[in-house]
């Protein structure tokens, strides 16, 4: 295969034996950048993500975006013949991605020490709820409970109401990014150093978002403060928040630096605030946040969304309308960046999905394959690559191995 033809990871072979969102999303990100990803699914059942909404009729609408660029092979790796086939596939695999509960693969005789006998250079990326070690290692873990465990949920919402969980699988997608990052980092080390052996990379779901909460750790460690629920960026920057325009639209504006506030003050024709000891630094503004918020809110309400956007863009103040998905579909910037693209679907015709990111100048990623039907590539991979005959494939299917 021509180097870089389909993206920077062209030529990298990945086996994805994971299910649902976090680890499979990581595999999809790698596939978008050119990696050849073979997804292993249970015969007659498949990835449980195939049964998750939203739906159109009987069609799961998440599947086309989350499983694109993969090839599907059905294989019951709990059965002896399935294990042997998996080991044969491992021989030509760079990275194996899995998210079974810790100890499960070992119980089936498919732990890393066993698999590396088939391929010593194998890299194994393991994602679980709470990681491979520690007293909680065997707990069942899904994204929303692990978000609560991470400390993230505790600070979301309003102080007079219960904590609010994210309205979608935020933690799973963040962990998917870590999955891809971990995989390519281990691959780089192996190939850069010509290490004759691969390694295991593992993390718990909760750890991906906990890593982003360094301000909580530092604040509690040094000041003994337990941060409580606040909406938006309260306690970080002032002004910051959601504001309503004259025509009833909502925008988010954040002044994370003093230089940004300086530009906002100029736009508001309130440069007097820059000389006022209550407002001239972020730390001072936070002490008088209610006053600052009223000044900014009252000023924003004088303008329509279009007027406000034009004025603040002119002064270089970060502001954005709060877009619905309908707004996004119609937005000129999303269209120019090709953030939404169409892929083929065997029954729906075409389905829109997010485009490939990030953009590479020399080796751009691409959507090469639509999301696969269950076992669609059995013959291509088990027959073409492993050399199993049609009769052998038929027998394995009869036994429920594939």
How does this model look, in words?
- It holds the Pfam family CoA_transf_3.
- InterPro entries: CoA-transferase_III_domain, CoA-Trfase_fam_III, CoA-Trfase_III_dom3_sf, CoA-Trfase_III_dom_1_sf.
- Its EC number is 2.8.3.-.
- The protein has 402 residues and is of the alpha/beta class.
- It folds into two domains: 13-211 and 336-399, Rossmann fold (3-Layer(aba) Sandwich); 240-244 and 250-321, formyl-coa transferase, domain 3 (2-Layer Sandwich).
- The chain has helices spanning 22-32, 63-66, 80-90, 104-107, 112-118, 143-150, 170-193, 205-210, 214-223, 258-267, 282-287, 289-300, 305-315, 325-330, 332-336, 378-383, 390-399, and strands at 13-16, 36-41, 55-56, 59-60, 70-74, 95-98, 123-128, 200-204, 240-244, 250-254, 319-321, 340-345, 349-354.
- A six-stranded parallel β-sheet has the order 5-2-1-6-7-8. Strands 9-10-11 form a three-stranded antiparallel β-sheet, covered by helices on one side.
- Helix 1 (22-32) packs across helix 7 (170-193).
């Amino acid at each position: 295969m021509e180097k870089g033809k389909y993206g920077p990871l062209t030529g990298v072979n990945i086996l994805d034996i994971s299910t649902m969102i976090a680890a499979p999303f990581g595999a999809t990100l790698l596939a978008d950048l050119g990696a050849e990803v073979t997804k292993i699914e249970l015969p007659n059942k498949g990835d449980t993500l195939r049964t998750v909404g939203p739906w159109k009729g009987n069609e799961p609408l998440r599947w086309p975006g989350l499983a694109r660029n993969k090839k599907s092979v059905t294989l019951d790796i709990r059965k002896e013949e399935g294990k042997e086939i998996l080991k044969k596939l491992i021989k030509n695999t760079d990275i194996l991605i899995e998210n079974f509960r810790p100890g499960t693969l070992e119980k089936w005789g498919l732990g890393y020490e066993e698999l590396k006998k088939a391929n010593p250079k194998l890299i194994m990326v393991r994602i679980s709820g709470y990681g491979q070690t520690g007293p909680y290692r065997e707990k069942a873990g899904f994204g929303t409970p692990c978000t609560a465990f991470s400390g993230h949920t505790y600070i979301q919402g309003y102080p007079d109401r219960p904590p609010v969980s994210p309205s979608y699988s935020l933690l799973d997608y963040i962990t998917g990014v870590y999955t891809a990052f971990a995989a390519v980092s281990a691959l780089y080390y192996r190939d850069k150093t010509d290490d004759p052996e691969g390694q295991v990379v593992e993390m718990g779901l909760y750890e991906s978002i906990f890593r982003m909460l360094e301000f909580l750790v530092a604040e509690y460690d040094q000041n003994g403060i337990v941060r409580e629920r606040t909406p938006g960026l309260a306690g970080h920057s002032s002004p910051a928040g959601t504001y309503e325009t004259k025509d009833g639209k909502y925008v988010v504006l954040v002044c994370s630096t003093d230089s940004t506030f300086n530009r906002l003050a100029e736009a508001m024709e309130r440069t007097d605030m820059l000389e006022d000891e209550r407002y001239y630094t972020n730390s001072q503004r936070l002490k008088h946040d209610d006053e600052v918020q009223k000044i900014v809110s009252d000023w924003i309400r004088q303008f329509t969304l279009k007027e406000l956007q034009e004025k603040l863009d002119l002064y270089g103040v970060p502001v954005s309308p709060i877009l619905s998905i309908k707004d996004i579909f119609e937005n000129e910037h999303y269209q120019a960046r090709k953030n939404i693209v169409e892929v083929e679907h065997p029954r729906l015709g075409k389905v829109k999905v997010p485009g490939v990111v990030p953009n590479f100048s020399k080796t751009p990623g691409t959507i090469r394959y639509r999301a696969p039907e269950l076992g669609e590539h059995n013959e291509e991979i088990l027959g073409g690559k492993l050399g199993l005959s049609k009769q052998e494939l038929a027998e394995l299917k009869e036994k429920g191995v594939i």
